[in-house]
Amino acid sequence: IPGVIIGHAIDSGLEARMRMKRARRYAQNIAAARFNESFIRSVFGMFGKLVAINGGLNQKEKSVFDRIINEGLRLTKQGKKASVTAFNDALKSSRSFSSYAVEFMDLTKNDSAMINFMLDSLLALALADGELSSEEKRILSIAADVFGLPKKEEQPNLFNTAQSETEDAYQVLGCKKTD
Questions:
Q1: pLDDT (tens digit, 9 = 90+) per residue, 142-179?
Q2: Global pTM?
Q3: Residue 72 CA to chain centroid, in angstroms?
Q4: Of 140, 177, 143, 174, whose CA–CA distance to 160 is shortest?
């Protein structure tokens, strides 16, 4: 009888611990899913607002967009679907670019690698057509401000450098923008 009582107590304790582990794992999975959803919404919301400036996604921008999804973020099939949905929602939304940028910063907790990736991605998307319009510069300045980068006055060549690097790349390749 004492063995049965002790065995039952051990089994009950193990079962309770297993339930707690499953509940913890479930809560962690829910939190991770919510983070991923918010992350994708903020990143692709910024992309959508940037692309909306010129009237939507052109072929060159689509190429950059696909490269960011496949190589930069390495999204799963489900992640790709969510990113396209978030992008399209942002195109139609009245939500501002800066609100997506603030959400991104809240999620990444000032992670410099993520901030640099995002700024590089925004810049690549803005420069996809070979030009940087004044509206694109304005959006990129908002991003730089929200991301905590130096003000435009303190770093005046931030966007000009990127554009001249693109022009230098054409010279290195021995071709023109129209090729």
A1: 998 899 876 544 444 555 555 555 565 555 555 566 65
A2: 0.71
A3: 10
A4: 140
